[in-house]
Amino acid sequence: MSISLAVLEPIIREAGAIALSYFKDLKNLAVNKKSPRDFVTAADVAVEDFLKQALTAQYPEYGFWGEESGQSANQNSRWVVDPIDGTHSFSKGQYYWAISVALEINQELVAGIVYAPALDDYYCAQKGLGAWKNGEPITVSSEDELENSMIGTGFACLRSRLENNNLERFCRIANRTTGQRRLGSAAVDVCLVADGQLDAFWEQELNLYDVAAGAVIAREAGATVTDFQGNEGLFPKQVLITNGKLLSQLLPLM
Fold first, then answer.
1. Is the pLDDT of residue 205 over 90?
2. What backbone torsions phi and psi does residue 107 show, to the nearest 5 degrees?
3. Domains of the chain
4. Of the residues 98, 106, 166, 208, which has the fewest C-beta atoms closer than 10 A?
5. Beta-strand runs (E) in 28-162
6. What distances in angstroms separate CA 227 from CA 60, 76, 90, 139, 212, one per listed residue?
7. 76, exposed or middle or buried, with CB in 10 Å at 0-12, 13-18, 19+?
8. Is residue 114 within 8 Å of 191, Cβ to Cβ?
9. What is the DSSP letter of 178?
């Protein structure tokens, strides 16, 4: 793998500037629906178009998979991109949304960047090199009691109107924890676990581009990344990311 996080940073930050230009003019933002509960804006398309062009120019050996444009070129080694994770929040003027860019080589996630431009929080990680936020190393929390923990989740499953929709699971876990957060961006939520601001996060029925970059960052910060049965690995349909100390306490509630 021959990439440089330092080379990538100005590209991602420029993508963030593009997103912010739309964010500051929401009254003129074109918002459409891909499905009854799934939004796409002109900002999503503009940011993804920029990233596809810039990343391909810098690293032509890698293919591209973006939420809006789909898959192109080499899919064995590819960028996995969500141009704006948290589009609904973005369109409402809320701050919890992010650009998510991961590098996947032969089905292994080896680098990840999550940039939340409205917060100006820049997270990045590369396999074996640790995780960073705004240039400082980060690590997961040391909380070891579920009853004292703050847990994040989301309800992507509700967009598809699935019967297995996370509501019962949320009630079980909420009754066992001190704080629950639903911020609207899985990419940001996973990074908050990496940074110790949340002790764990779970969600179901996500896509790889929602959590690929965050998973790299979380792992490098010391998090466990499993499905709801505790199998190690990133399974977007069942994402459970913890500080490690809470994994055994959360699994029976999944």
1. no
2. 65, 20
3. 5-137 (3.30.540.10), 146-253 (3.40.190.80)
4. 106
5. 31-35, 38-41, 63-66, 70-72, 77-85, 98-105, 108-116, 121-126, 131-133, 136-137, 150-153
6. 33, 23, 28, 21, 14
7. exposed
8. yes
9. S
